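Input structure tokens:
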């Protein structure tokens, strides 16, 4: 049983197909099939059955897959420990981050980290929040930089530890000089005026796909406001929603942190919302419980905390 064989079986299970697994592994399909046949001959049992829906594991296949996950995790932890032994002279960190957040965070953190640890390889897994949560629970990554719900309530039962960095408010976006602008209140020293969300009960809304966390936070805000909006368009891109709102097609929500990601070719008005709606999400680091954290990983997380107002993380 070799690391290569473990990886081959793991990939076939996850792809449900030898041909797809071969493409992902960059090996030929006949070579991969021969390898599986040798493993099955050595074990004296089948690992997979063919069905109309692709390859399905036998009981022996399920046990082999679980063993592959366990052994590969042990090996990853061993590599991390070796990095510590070498005092950060070599090694790597593997972490997850959401795509748009990477655009904002990584140019700030990575250059400083690489300057301090030039020989540490950095591997970044860019996925949406749902997939990062799955990767954490599966042990594919030790930590992720992402956003959490207000008060982290829907996530309390997850087998992860959450280290909050700061709260990022959600703003209401409208076209310039919207009719309701006259009802907005500008607080002294506040970046944007505050407006009553209830005013927009009859207004058209542009929202993101239901699987995206921005949409989920938006839904929570609307639930707190106790009205069901007239959703005229659903998009995958918060920037598309922002630009369409700036053109008067409807109104939308956007995290304050994301306003500066794209050049503001489409000017809009932005409003804070009352805190009773819990209009925010929390930038955080999620760490797999009981996972071994290397010195490099701890340093990276400490640098995140120092940059974004949560000093003392991983001390």
């Amino acid at each position: 049983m070799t690391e290569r064989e473990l990886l081959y079986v793991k990939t076939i299970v996850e792809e449900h197909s030898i041909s797809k697994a071969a493409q992902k592994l960059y090996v030929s399909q006949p070579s991969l099939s021969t390898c599986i046949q040798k493993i099955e001959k050595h074990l004296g049992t089948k690992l997979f059955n063919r069905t109309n829906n692709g390859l399905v594991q036998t009981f022996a296949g399920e046990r082999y897959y679980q063993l592959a996950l366990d052994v590969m995790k042990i090996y990853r932890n061993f590599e991390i420990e070796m990095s510590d032994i070498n005092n950060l002279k070599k090694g790597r960190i593997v972490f997850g981050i959401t795509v748009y957040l990477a655009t904002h965070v990584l140019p700030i953190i990575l250059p400083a980290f690489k300057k301090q640890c030039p020989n540490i390889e950095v591997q970044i897994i860019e996925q949406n929040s749902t997939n990062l949560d799955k990767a954490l629970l599966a042990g594919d990554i030790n930590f992720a930089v992402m956003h959490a719900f207000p008060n982290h309530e829907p996530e309390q039962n997850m087998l992860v530890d959450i280290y909050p960095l700061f709260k990022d408010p959600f703003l209401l976006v409208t076209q310039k000089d919207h009719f309701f602008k006259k009802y907005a209140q500008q607080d002294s020293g506040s970046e944007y005026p505050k407006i009553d969300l209830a005013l927009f009960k009859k207004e058209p809304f542009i929202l993101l796909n239901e699987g995206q966390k921005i949409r989920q936070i938006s839904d929570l805000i609307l639930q707190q406001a106790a009205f069901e909006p007239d959703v005229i368009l659903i998009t995958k891109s918060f920037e598309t929603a922002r630009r369409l709102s700036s053109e008067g097609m409807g109104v939308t929500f956007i995290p304050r942190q994301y306003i500066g990601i794209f050049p503001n070719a489409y000017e809009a008005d932005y409003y804070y919302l009352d805190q009773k709606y819990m209009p925010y999400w929390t930038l955080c680091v999620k760490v797999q419980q009981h996972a071994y954290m290397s010195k490099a990983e701890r340093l990276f997380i400490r640098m995140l905390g120092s940059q974004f107002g949560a000093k003392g993380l991983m001390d």
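Residues 75-159+290-307 form a domain with the D-Maltodextrin-Binding Protein; domain 2 fold (CATH 3.40.190.10). The chain has three domains: 3-72, 75-159+290-307, 167-281.
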